[in-house]
């Protein structure tokens, strides 16, 4: 079969919408945002953005559904509240906040916190959210979960998320990993999306923009990490794992880690010599993804790897075809652990609220390049003194088909997303506790 005859099948592989709509996968946009001739977008049936600062500059702190099972949250955190929540958690529980040295184009700071294994400098797991601005409430889910873990630890209680519960011993095991959180990785994009309802995915870097075409602003941060960033060179012709068109929703930027947001993640990883796991939180595809992102895995031929130029132009075709047979090498034990963990995460999410979840390798949804989940393993590939990092992506929930921006959840969906993401993170942490390097 020729590659050209294979390409029309790729959108079918995507099945449900993920971080991209089927139209966006083909290079299009959500219509009402870009035409300018249609009525204003209708996002009335979506959870509103909070006003002011419910955490009063860190005077109070978030607590999720795991420690207060009847809680309901009727607004999502605005940009001020995201930062204030971390401040509040630091004040209440002594977690250690930090800031990246890289400022965004709108002078926002990428910040995070370290917590858990406070008796040592061992930090084994990175949890991050907010790369895609429009996936509203995803940063909140991380902060609510962390709020639950810390509350449960301090008050000696377990956690209950819908049909799934965890003991205090589980809480201790999760925290003993040593955790680093990056809750709001795209502050410029989040601020813009919350101010405009523009269903905005990318950051707000105007460096590649064309005057009069607002869609050309911004870089897709989840295509800007280093692994196979140069997809046009590394992958087979026609595999649109990212885009070189600034108007695309999957514009990869001008170089690997060209953006302050992705540089910040790399900088955080530089400071975590014992990092072994990372989970990247997204919405709303109902999947748990494990790497590699750009092609299927194999565990028998180490020469088929992303740094080997002999395979440039051959990667990214799923399923393989004659002449384009390539699968990315992954050590067998590492692959086993990731499949097991992703499966347990998906199972727990379904057990929690009954919504269906599946675990997939990334390219079985669609191949992508420059993805965050593979960045830790790329760092190991170019410098073997660094650990490999199990990279996982959580896509909580389902699209909101009543809204023009299907990435904006309803109040009810947001509650379910908090529960599902919490159990996914808990399963990942319990697996990380069992599988240290
Ligand atoms: Zn996303």
UniProtKB/TrEMBL annotation:
InterPro entries: Peptidase_M14 (IPR000834)
GO biological process, one term: proteolysis
A Pfam family matched in the record: Peptidase_M14
Protein keywords: Hydrolase, Metalloprotease, Protease, Signal, Zinc
GO molecular function: metallocarboxypeptidase activity; zinc ion binding
Signal peptide: 1-18
Record region (Disordered): 31-53
Domain Peptidase M14: 75-436
Catalytic residues, chain numbering: 395
Family the entry assigns: Belongs to the peptidase M14 family.
Name of the molecule in the record: Peptidase M14
UniProt source species: Podospora appendiculata
């Amino acid at each position: 079969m020729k590659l050209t005859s294979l390409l029309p099948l790729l959108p079918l592989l995507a099945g449900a919408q993920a971080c991209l709509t089927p139209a966006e996968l083909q290079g299009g946009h959500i219509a009402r945002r870009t035409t300018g001739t249609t009525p204003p977008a209708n996002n009335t049936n979506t959870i509103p953005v909070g006003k002011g600062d419910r955490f009063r500059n860190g005077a109070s702190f978030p607590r999720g559904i795991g420690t207060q099972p009847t809680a309901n949250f009727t607004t999502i955190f605005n940009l001020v509240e995201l930062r204030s929540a971390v401040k509040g958690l630091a004040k209440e529980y002594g977690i250690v906040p930090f800031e990246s040295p890289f400022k965004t184009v709108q002078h926002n700071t990428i910040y995070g916190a370290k917590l858990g294994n406070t008796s040592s400098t061992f930090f084994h797991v990175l949890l991050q959210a907010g790369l895609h601005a429009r996936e509203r409430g995803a940063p909140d889910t991380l902060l609510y979960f962390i709020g639950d873990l810390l509350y449960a630890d301090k008050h000696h209680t377990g956690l209950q998320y819908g049909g799934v519960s965890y003991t205090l011993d589980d809480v201790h095991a999760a925290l003993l990993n040593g955790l680093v959180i990056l809750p709001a990785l795209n502050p410029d994009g989040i601020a813009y999306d919350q101010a405009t309802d523009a269903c905005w995915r990318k950051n707000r870097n105007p460096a590649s923009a064309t005057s009069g075409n607002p869609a050309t602003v911004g870089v897709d941060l989840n295509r800007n990490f280093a692994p196979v960033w140069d997809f046009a060179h590394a992958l087979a012709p026609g595999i649109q794992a990212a885009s070189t068109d600034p108007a695309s929703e999957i514009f990869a930027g001008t170089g690997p880690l060209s953006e302050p947001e992705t540089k910040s993640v790399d900088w955080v990883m530089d400071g975590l010599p014992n990092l072994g796991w990372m989970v990247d939180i997204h919405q709303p595809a109902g999947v748990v993804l494990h790497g590699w992102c750009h092609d299927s895995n194999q565990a028998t031929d180490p020469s088929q790897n992303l740094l080997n130029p002999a395979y440039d132009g051959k990667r990214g075709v799923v399923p393989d075809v004659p002449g384009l047979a390539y699968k990315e090498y992954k050590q067998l034990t590492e692959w086993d652990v990731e499949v097991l963990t992703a499966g347990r995460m998906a199972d727990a999410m379904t057990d929690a609220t009954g919504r269906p979840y599946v675990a997939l390798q990334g390219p079985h949804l669609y191949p992508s390049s420059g993805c965050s989940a593979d960045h830790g393993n790329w760092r190991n590939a170019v410098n073997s003194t660094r650990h490999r990092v199990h990279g996982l992506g959580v896509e909580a929930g389902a699209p909101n088909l009543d809204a023009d921006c299907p990435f904006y959840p309803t109040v009810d969906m947001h509650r379910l997303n908090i529960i599902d993401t919490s159990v996914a993170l808990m399963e990942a942490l319990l697996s990380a506790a069992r599988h240290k390097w």
